[in-house]
Amino acid sequence: MSRVIASLLTLLLAGFLAAEGGTATAYRAINSAFADSTEASGQFYQSGAAGRLANDGIYANSTPEGAIAEFQYHNPGVNPTVFEVQYPVSSTLNISPPSGYFNSQLPFTGDANILIAPSLRSPGTFNLLIRQGAVPGARLP
């Protein structure tokens, strides 16, 4: 099964898994200069920069390729390192089409912990803004 299909199934099943208190996996590309410190600290840096899903969480993508495409759009010429992102399956809100750039929490999201929108840089993948519980997983080769 392709990673895109697997990612979509994970997102679609999130509501069913929430009752189980499960976790899911997404992917985040970061500047390679910060890979060792991310791994050592066990935390992702939250930049607070304006984003299409606001700025109050950790951005990730449903596939490694999508994470790289999003990173390279914002950081041309910088080679990223990709990490798995482990996050709690919890309340989600799908925002489609993605909005403009916001420099604060979106006012209409209520208690949703995860905001999801289709990626503009990597069609067929999804961006996630994970507000609470995003933890670095394995570093991909």
Provide the succession of SSEs: HEHEHEEEEE
As for the number of domains, it is 1
What about the largest sheet? 4 strands, mixed
| Portion of residues within helices | 10-25%
Radius of gyration equals 14 Å
Report low-confidence residues grouped into runs of 5 or more: 12-20
Walk me through the structure.
With 141 residues, the chain is of the alpha+beta class. The chain has a single domain (3-139), classed as Phosphoenolpyruvate Carboxykinase, domain 3 (Alpha-Beta Complex), CATH 3.90.228.10. Helices cover 24% and strands 28% of the residues. The strands form 2 sheets. Strands 2-6-5-4 form a 4-stranded mixed β-sheet. Strand 5 and strand 6 form a beta hairpin.
Question: What would a concise description of this structure say?
Answer:
This protein has 141 residues and is of the alpha+beta class. It is built from 3 helices and 7 strands. The protein has helices at residues 3-18, 35-41, 64-74, and strands spanning 23-31, 58-61, 80-88, 92-94, 114-118, 126-130, 135-139.
Descriptors:
three-stranded antiparallel sheet; alpha+beta; single chain; Phosphoenolpyruvate Carboxykinase, domain 3; 7 strands; 141 residues; 24% helix; four-stranded mixed sheet
Q: What is the topology?
A:
Elements: H1 3-18, E1 23-31, H2 35-41, E2 58-61, H3 64-74, E3 80-88, E4 92-94, E5 114-118, E6 126-130, E7 135-139
Parallel strand pairs: 4-5
Antiparallel strand pairs: 1-3, 2-6, 3-7, 5-6
